Amino acid sequence: MHGPEFLKYTKNHEWVDLDGTKARIGITDHAQEALGDIVFVELPEMDSELQAEDVLGVVESVKSASDIYVPLSGTVIAVNQEVSDEPELINQDAYEAWLVELEISDPDEVSGLMDLDAYEAWCAEEN
Amino acid sequence: MELIFEKSRPGLHAFSLPPSDVPEYNGDQLIPRHLRRSRPAGLPQVSETEAVRHYTALSSRNHGVDSGFYPLGSCTMKYNPKINEDIAAMPGFSAVHPLLPAAAVQGCLAVMYELDQALCRITGMAQFTLQPAAGAHGELTGLMIIRAWHQQQNETTRDEILIPDSAHGTNPASAALAGFKVVEIPSDADGCVDLQALRRSLGPKTAGIMLTNPNTLGLFDRQICAIADAVHQAGGLLYYDGANANAILGQVRPGDMGFDIVHLNLHKTFSTPHGGGGPGAGPVGVTEALAPFLPGPLAVRQSDGTYDWETVHHPLSIGRMKAFHGHFAVLVRALAYIWTLGDEGLREVSETAVLNANYVQASLRETYDLPFNRLCMHECVLSARQLREQTGISALDVAKRLLDDGFHPPTIYFPLIVKEALMIEPTETENKAGLDAFILAMRQIAAEAAHSPETVRQAPQKTPVSRLDETAAARHPILRWKPPAEADQ
Fold first, then answer.
1. Whole-model pTM?
2. A83 neighbourhood in chain B, CB within 8 Å
3. What is the CA radius of gyration of chain A?
4. Contact A64 B475 (CB under 8 A)
5. Considering only residues 48 to 67 of chain A, which have any Cβ-Cβ distance to chain B shorter than 8 Å?
6. Which fold has domain B83-340?
7. What is the helix (H) or strand (E) element at residue A77, kind and residue range?
8. Domains in chain A, ordered, with CATH?
9. pLDDT digit string, tens, across residues B28-83
C-alpha cells in the first residue's frame, strides 16, 4: 500500500489532492522513505505561475537533494510554511505534509495523473 | 574535547614583545569611528604551548591518507609524495611575490609554462589556463568559455547544457551558475549515456554537454566518439570533467575522444594534498579554436628561451578567473609529480588504479550487489541494497562500521542512480595487503549485519566521537561558538 486511494500520483513520486480547480501537492511516502531524513525544503513564492513539469522546489535529505516537479500548471495560492520550518513533518506523515496549493489553469492535465493502482505498479516497475 | 575558546583565559598570550622604540599613535585617531570595532573581536586567549597542543590534538583525531586507507570514491585520495613538498618549499617558489617582474621569476614562469605543456600532452588539448582554484571553478570557467564561443558565433539562443543523470552534482550547479538551463540525460542499461535520449535532447538550443569519462559508476563510455559526433553536429561543445582522469592517464586523451574543453583536478590526479590539506587547482584546457577565450595572462616561452607573461590581450578572453596566477604552490607540486613519474610512470598510475579497483570489485561482488556487471575503471560502485533488505543494515551503517576498523569509508549514496551505493576508489598507491585488509573488513561487516546487526547499527565505537546525529546537525546547525552568557539567551 503506497498511499490513500483518493489521491492522484505522478511518476516523480508526488501526490495531488484535487478539490475542484484547487490542487494540494506533496511527495509520497515512498519518496520520503527513499530520501531518508529530510532536513530542508525549498518552496516557491506565493502567486508564482508554474507550467506542468516546472521545478516546484527542492527537498534535501542527509543523503541527497532532489527537485520536486509540479505535475499541473497553475498559480501558487498557498505555501505550507510549517513544512519549511519543520521538514521532519514530511517523514512523519507524507500525506499530511502538503507543500503547496495551486489554482490549476488547465484541468485537462489532470487526466495525465495516475490513480493508486497505476502508481503502485509504477513503483514496482521502478524497483 | 574542549574548544580553543573554552580553553581561553583572560591575559594568556603567546607573544612577548620588547618595548616599542618608535612613537605610538592611538588607533582611534587614525581610523574613522565608523570603521572601528565597537567591541573586541572575541579571539581566544591561550599560551603558545596550549595553542600548539590544541591543534596537534585536533590533527591526531583526523584521518588522512598518511594515517590510513582512504577509498573515498570520486575523490582520488592517493598518497601525496613528500618530494613534492620539498620542491614547493624551495625559496625560489615559496618566497616570491606575484607582482615581481617576469625577469625576477623566470623559474616560476617556467613551471607554469611547462605544466601547461605537460597537461596539453596528457589531455590532447592546445592550451591551458592554470587559474581555476578547484574542479567546480574549472567547470564554471569552461562553461563561460562555451557561452563566449556561441556568442562570438552569433548563436545567442544556445542556453542548454546536457548532463547525464550519473553526473557529479557540481556539473548542474556550475551550469546553473553560468546561466544555462540544465537538461538531464538518462543512463542506459549499461550505466552509460543513453544515445537515443541524447539525440532527442540535442537541438538549436544546445550549448554543450558535460561528461565524465569514465563516469561516476567507474565505467568507460565506449560510445564517446558517437556522442561527440552527435553533439558537434548539433552545434554544441563537449566539456570533459576531469574528476576521473586517474583512470585514463597515458591510455587515452580527452582531446582524441572529441572533447573541446577539459578540466583536471591537480589535487586528485596529480597528487597535490586535498581534503582539508588543500587548496586545490582545476586548470582548464581547450582546443586551438577556443584558446583565445582562455583567461589570461598566460605564461609563454619566447624565441630567446626566456619566459614572460603573454603581452597580447585577447579581445575574446573571458577575463580573469582568479587573482594573480591561481594556487601557484599547487602547480609546482603537480609538475614535480608529473616529471618524477614521466610518461611511463603516469601510464602505470592508471593501470594500477584500474587493477586495484577491479580487484576490490571482484573480491566483494559476492558479498555486496554489483549493479552494473562490467569491468570497472579506477573505482567500483557496489550496493548494500540486498544487505539492507535482508538485515536492515544500510550503506550508511557499513560506512560507520568501517571507521572502527581504521578505514575511511567509501563515498555512499552516490551516484544517485544506484540505491544504497558504496563507491570505492582505492587508487594506485595502496598495495595488495592494504586492499586485502579492507576487503576482509567489508566481508566481516556483511557477516556481522546478519548475526549481530546492533553492533553495526551502533558503530562507530572506537572513534573519538561515536555516531553523530547527522539529521539534527542539518536541521538545527550550530554554526559558531558563543560565550556561555550569550548562548543561554
1. 0.90
2. none
3. 13
4. no
5. 60, 62-65
6. Aspartate Aminotransferase; domain 2 (3.40.640)
7. strand A74-79
8. 8-121 (2.40.50.100)
9. 888 888 998 888 888 999 999 999 999 999 989 989 999 999 999 999 999 999 99
